[in-house]
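User: tokens in, sequence out, please.
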């Protein structure tokens, strides 16, 4: 029975991933987030704030984990001059240190089965320089480094990959997509002239968490409408 732990699986891309994993035969899906929201009853939910040093992650770890995705993240787009050092620390704490804590808590169970998979989240703004993205690009750049380092350290027992989305239609991006004009302008910035729904980014995560991706590790895969490379 495949067991998945989706950290931040209660909203956006993580929630779409949970729905896709639940369609797999005999899948057991665990979610950690601060709020349960409208998760299906079959999901095993544990309330956890990954930025809270006091939260006891180890006692919430399932006995086995075959696939783990770390989805918490932030969007704080401001000119560099108005990003105080605290904003960089905050972005790093949620996007990077939270992932580190979750991975250290689950390392033993991930390695146990000999073929687990981890998915982390970067952003297109690491590959392609964009104004106002300094704090999030710095934090997600660290995620890309972490992805390759852990892929090397954990091979062959655990694969580690990252997805670098562009703007995706989730609650996190709500303000950036709050009118038809904003949606259209955002779509036009992408060579494929569209903003991805959460389900498309989740589908890449679901693939990376499957045995079909058994030869893929240490990669950062863009799901970005072509923005990162064209
Ligand atoms: N959406 C985009 O446009 C976009 C673009 C590029 C990259 N990304 C990246 O893709 C990933 C997923 O983004 P999304 O848009 O799906 O985000 P989202 O809709 O905000 O969902 C984030 C999930 O993480 C949980 N979470 C947030 N803070 C947490 C904390 N302190 N402790 C535990 N759980 C926490 C949230 O639940 P609670 O709030 O209940 O805790 C929620 O389940 C992120 O890493 C983001 O940076 C997104």
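Assistant: Sequence out:
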């Amino acid at each position: 029975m495949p067991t998945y732990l989706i950290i931040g699986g209660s909203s956006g891309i993580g929630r779409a991933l949970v729905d896709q994993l639940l369609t797999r035969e005999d899948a057991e899906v665990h979610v950690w987030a601060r709020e349960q929201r409208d998760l299906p009853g079959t999901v095993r939910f544990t309330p956890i704030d990954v930025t809270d040093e006091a939260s006891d992650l180890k006692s919430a770890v399932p006995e086995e984990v075959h696939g783990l995705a770390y989805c918490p993240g932030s969007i704080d787009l401001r000119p560099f001059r108005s990003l105080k050092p605290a904003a960089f620390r905050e972005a790093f704490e949620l996007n990077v240190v939270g992932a580190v804590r979750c991975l250290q808590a689950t390392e033993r169970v991930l390695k146990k089965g000999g073929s687990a998979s981890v998915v982390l989240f970067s952003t297109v703004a690491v590959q392609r320089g964009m104004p106002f993205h300094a704090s999030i690009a710095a934090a997600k750049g660290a995620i890309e480094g972490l992805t390759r380092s852990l892929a090397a350290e954990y091979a062959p027992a655990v694969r580690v990959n990252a997805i670098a989305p562009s703007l995706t239609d989730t609650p996190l991006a709500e303000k950036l997509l709050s009118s038809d004009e904003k949606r259209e302008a955002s779509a036009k910035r992408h060579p494929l002239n569209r903003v991805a729904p959460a389900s498309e980014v989740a589908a890449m995560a679901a693939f990376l968490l499957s045995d079909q991706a058994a030869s893929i590790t240490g990669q950062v895969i863009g799901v970005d409408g072509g923005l990162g490379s064209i």
